[in-house]
Amino acid sequence: MFDKLSIFAKANDLALHAAARQSVIAQNIANADTPGYRARDIPSFAEAYQPARTEQLRATRSNHIDASLTTTASADANTVYRAGAISPNGNSVSLETEMMMAAEAKRDHDLALAVYKSTLGIVRSSLGRR
Questions:
Q1: 32, 41, 44, 96: least CB-packed within 10 angstroms?
Q2: E strands, the chain, in order
Q3: pLDDT tens-digit map of 48-95
Q4: CA 8 → CA 33, 67, 76, 83, distances in Å?
């Protein structure tokens, strides 16, 4: 009954997305002085999230269920280049922007942990445990 709660999967995917975003931000900061380096980012969680289908759906006709509906979640989808001013050496990394993006990724990670903790508390309460 409790082995397939989708809220746990979504919270996990959000945490993985936040970790992937932090990794890209760290690469941007590490290359802040590299000539020609362009700041990168990954699409937002809302754009990149596609829930994985863990259960096999039952088809009543041969064309009833499209195979494209069984895609999996991808936390680190295609990297996109972030728009911004470019310095004379061709570098587009802004440390202020990266710090804001890092705080945003931390907020997403904290949200995922809060959702996970809250859901776990609800499940424990429903089982009569504290």
A1: 96
A2: 40-41, 80-81
A3: 776 655 555 555 666 555 544 433 334 343 567 777 788 899 898 999
A4: 40, 25, 19, 34
The vertex-67 CA angle with 61 and 14, nearest 5°, equals 130
d(C-alpha 79, C-alpha 93), whole Å: 15
pTM (global) more than 0.90: no
What is the C-alpha to C-alpha distance for residues 16 and 10, in angstroms, rounded to an integer? Answer: 10
Torsion, Cα 86 90 91 96, to 10 degrees, reads -20
Sign of the torsion angle spanned by Cα atoms 116, 121, 126, 130: positive
HSE at residue 22, side-chain half, CA atoms within 13 A, is 14
